[in-house]
Design a protein that fits this description.
By secondary structure, the protein is mainly alpha-helical. It has one domain (16-109): 434 Repressor (Amino-terminal Domain) (Orthogonal Bundle). Helices cover 60% and strands 5% of the residues. The chain is built from six helices and two strands; from the N terminus they run E-E-H-H-H-H-H-H. It has a two-stranded antiparallel sheet with strand order 1-2. Helix 1 (18-32) runs antiparallel to helix 2. It is elongated. Mean pLDDT is 81; it is low at 1-8.
Length: 120
């Protein structure tokens, strides 16, 4: 996963990056157990989809309004999908992908590492 590095200073303290925050979130999920880890994976998956859809549109130099005209999906909904705020149906995703000359494919998931493998 690629994370954008966002830094800021907290009341004169050392810089705190988005990666630092993410590491804390992951550690907290691990501490809370498998349910929290599964919720975090779902969150990552949703935002990965959103990011990929936005990148596909931008790669084709299409505005959200142009995609609205091609698909009939309101620009506001496209914005919500791309920001990870919406939970689109598979039909909506297929219509968006068709506008970008792409299609849905089912591929094997990467093998999950056990906690012991992560520590090693």
């Amino acid at each position: 996963m690629t994370l954008w590095v966002i830094t800021h200073t907290l009341r004169g303290m050392a810089k705190y990056t988005f990666n630092d925050l993410w590491a804390e979130i992951v550690a907290k999920a691990r501490d809370e157990g498998s349910d929290a880890e599964e919720q975090l994976e779902d969150f990552e998956s949703a935002f990965a989809w959103a990011r990929e859809l936005a990148l596909a549109r931008k790669k084709r130099k299409l505005s959200q309004k142009q995609v609205e005209r091609k698909t009939g999906i309101p620009q506001s909904e496209i914005s919500r999908i791309e920001s990870g705020e919406a939970n689109p149906t598979i039909q909506t995703v297929i219509r968006l992908l068709a506008a970008y000359d792409l299609r849905v494919a089912v591929v094997p998931a990467p093998r999950k590492r056990t906690r012991a493998q992560s520590i090693a």
